[in-house]
Design a protein that fits this description.
By secondary structure, this protein is α/β, with parallel strands linked by helices. Helix 2 runs antiparallel to helix 3, helix 15 (517-535) packs parallel to helix 16 and helix 18 crosses helix 19.
């Protein structure tokens, strides 16, 4: 495959001396994880959902260190002095991150010990310690260890040793201190097996469990017979997982992806989590053996490795979870012919998970069997291990239709799934390409070519989220169906850019990164400044996952200076500092963290009373604007523009799950005060904004019947 990244525009020069005008990206991300932790602590959430939130906190931190912190450590160790936009060198950022991470991690540990575990016990679910077991239970555990666990354990000498045994990424381990009669201390490592449950159910009617690591620690004499056991301490290692893909040719790219998946396990250690009871001398020794960057150790009292909480959260106790939620399914979305007719009569907007993802699956499945459909083109970023959409593409390919799939092999942590699907699609006769060497294909597009009585017509779906039915139930996303000829032709040409070779620099209506998206967004902001000068009624509302790009932030500051009202709904990272007189006093920033992960992107500009609204895949980050292929589509149908504004207003009214970012860079949870409590996600669950436009709905049970 030829390198097609030459059409990318260079990133703009860093703005001079931004200083306190910008908040630090990494610390802002940690603030987001802190808000997730608050949902684990929130007594309004059912206890098993709170366990999930706590597990997500640790998973988020793991990925943060595996990707972001590992890059900073590499820069620091190579003497790179490039400053972050807020003016910090890599080593300064690492120190600030650790200063913020340690109390966050300690608070998570305290949340489990003092809040969640007692709540579990009140609900009749007990996680027992070994010293609290009855004699009968101890006998059962001893037999279980002998027959089920002992054969899976492999003690490895760690020190002194000719070579240090490899300690895999995110694995939970026991560090065992031994004496064999000599003067020297010996250390061994026992990895906690992952092939079975970590929460071992004890026999009996009660829901009682004991942790696998506690069982192993209590029977170490069986693994080290004849040796004196001095102590055993849990520890966990997080490794660098940010491996770059550099090969050009498709075959080389596939080989490189396979190698990346393999090597990710062997990345350099970036963080060590240790049992709070582990002596400091042992902590230092393990850190030295691993070759850790100084200061990258966190002591944790209590539970280490919160993935076990997901096991407990999966217990069959429906009353301890959120009530079941069935998304709205418009009747028109269940009939392929009606769906095409409906799109032909006007654009259709869906808001997931409040509207069912089934309509999108049906859109592709109908195209696969429709004799009038001649071609399907699809981008695939994170589709999951089960994918009705990819199955439909396979059917279409086997049926002899012209099917093209752009599979992004560089979607981090989804490379393996995507590689498997790519090979299956190729076997079915689908034209599979892998995008660019230096640009990730992140846009969410599906294009269907259909022969109709009045000629060939193209139908398109443009989304803010992945074509993944599992995440569509958990993430809030938007999708637009349209047959607007300008938009569909833009998408058709964008697919040609992705699969062939072109230097397309203009599109009719789409904003495409890295071609014209940055310039298009800046033009919209400056257009709002001009409109405000004419009407004194300027208003910008942006709903994003992240706001990081310095140039976009400076443009918003400029809009603020002329008096434009700016509302920002930013789920995660926000580097803009709101509420500063003379700089951002007209800018309000909120973050909504609730049952569903906020993932939709909406760009709204009041435009002097004729609003311009776009949805799509891009956040305002340098990587999205300059190093990814993204697509933002204008929403033109007046009813849909009104609907999107209603969705934005719903979020802006939230006083239950919303957090306000203040000028000091701190997030403060909104409270109802004298107003009635208003939860945006709950409101949208009960009253989907799209219902009035989609018409009659059906029950999910009717669909399955």
């Amino acid at each position: 495959m030829r390198d097609k990244s030459s059409g990318a525009k260079k990133a703009p020069k860093r703005l001079p001396d931004p200083g306190p005008r910008l908040l630090n990206r990494e610390l802002s991300w940690l603030d987001f994880d802190r808000r997730v932790l608050e949902e684990a602590l929130n007594p309004a959430n059912p206890i098993l959902e709170r366990l999930k939130f706590l597990a997500i906190v640790e998973s988020n931190l793991d990925e943060f260190f595996m990707v972001r912190v590992s890059g900073l450590i590499e820069q620091a160790e190579h003497g790179v002095m490039e400053m972050s936009p807020d003016g910090l060198a890599p080593i300064e950022q690492i120190k600030a991150i650790m200063k913020s991470t340690k109390p966050l991690r300690r608070r998570a540990a305290d949340a489990w010990d003092t809040k969640l575990k007692p709540c579990l016990e009140s609900a009749g679910i007990f996680l027992r310690t070994m010293d609290s077991l009855s004699v009968r239970q101890l006998e059962w555990v001893a037999n279980h260890f002998e027959t089920e666990i002992f054969p899976l354990c492999t003690p490895l000498l760690l020190h002194p040793a000719a070579t240090i045994p490899f300690i895999s990424n995110r694995s939970l381990n026991l560090l065992v201190q031994l004496e064999d009669g000599g003067a020297d201390m010996r250390l061994a490592r026992v990895k906690i097996p992952t092939v079975g449950p970590r929460a071992i159910r004890l026999p009996g009617k009660k829901l009682e469990f004991v942790l696998l690591e506690d069982v192993i620690a209590a029977h170490l004499d069986k693994l080290f017979p004849g040796v004196r056991l001095v102590g055993a301490y849990r520890f966990r290692v997080i490794r660098d997982a940010d491996t770059e893909i550099k090969e050009l040719e498709a075959a080389d790219l596939i080989a490189s992806i396979e190698e990346t998946i393999r090597l990710r396990r062997f990345g350099d250690p970036v963080l060590l989590e240790v049992d709070g009871a582990m002596p400091e001398s042992l902590q230092n020794l393990i850190s030295e053996l691993l070759g850790l960057h100084p200061g990258m150790t966190i002591k944790i009292d209590g539970l280490i490795g919160y993935d076990v909480l997901l096991e407990l959260a999966a217990l069959e106790r429906p009353g301890l979870r959120f009530p079941p939620f069935n998304p709205y399914i418009a009747e028109v979305a269940t009939n392929p012919r009606s769906l095409f007719d409906t799109i032909l009569s006007g654009d259709v907007l869906l808001h997931h998970p409040f509207d069912s993802f089934y309509a999108i699956e049906q859109f592709v499945a109908a195209a696969a069997v429709d004799p009038d459909v001649t071609g399907i083109k699809q981008t695939l970023y994170r589709v999951g291990s089960q994918s009705p959409i990819v199955e439909a593409l396979l059917d279409a390919g086997e049926a002899g239709k012209q099917v093209a799939a752009i599979v992004e092999l560089k979607a981090r942590f989804d490379e393996s799934n995507n590689l498997l699907w790519a090979r299956a699609l190729e076997r079915a006769g689908v034209h599979v390409t892998f995008g660019f060497r230096e640009l990730k294909t992140h846009c969410k597009l599906c294009l269907i070519v259909r022969r109709e009585p009045d000629g060939v017509r193209q139908y398109a779906h443009i989304g803010t989220g992945n074509y993944n039915p599992a995440t569509a139930r958990l993430y809030t996303d938007l999708g637009l169906f349209t047959c607007d000829p300008d938009i569909t032709q833009d998408i058709s040409e964008l697919f040609n850019y992705l699969t062939g070779y072109s230097r397309q620099s203009k599109y009719r209506k789409l904003l495409v990164a890295p071609v014209n998206l940055r310039e298009g967004v800046l033009e919209l902001i400056h257009g709002e400044i001009a409109a405000h000068r004419r009407t004194k009624k300027g208003h910008i509302v942006l709903k994003l996952n992240a706001l990081v790009d310095p140039e976009a932030i400076e443009a918003l500051y400029e809009a603020n200076r002329v008096g434009v009202k700016i509302d920002l709904i930013v789920r995660g990272i926000c580097c803009l500092r709101p509420g500063v007189p003379g700089m951002s006093e007209h800018i309000r920033v909120i973050s909504v963290v609730g049952r569903f992960l906020e993932h939709s992107r909406i760009y709204y500009f009041e435009n002097g009373g004729s609003p311009k609204v776009l949805i799509g895949s891009a956040d305002l980050m340098r990587r999205n604007l300059d190093r990814r292929v993204e697509a933002m589509v204008p929403v033109q149908r007046p009813e849909l523009v009104t609907l999107l504004k209603e969705i934005l207003d719903t979020y802006l009214k939230d006083n239950v799950q919303a957090w306000r970012l203040n000028s000091g860079g701190d997030y403060v949870r909104r409270k109802p005060g004298k107003s009635a409590p208003f939860d945006a996600q709950r409101e949208l669950m009960h009253h989907p904004a799209t219902r009035s436009l989609l018409g009659a709905g059906i029950a999910p049970t009717e669909l399955s019947a």
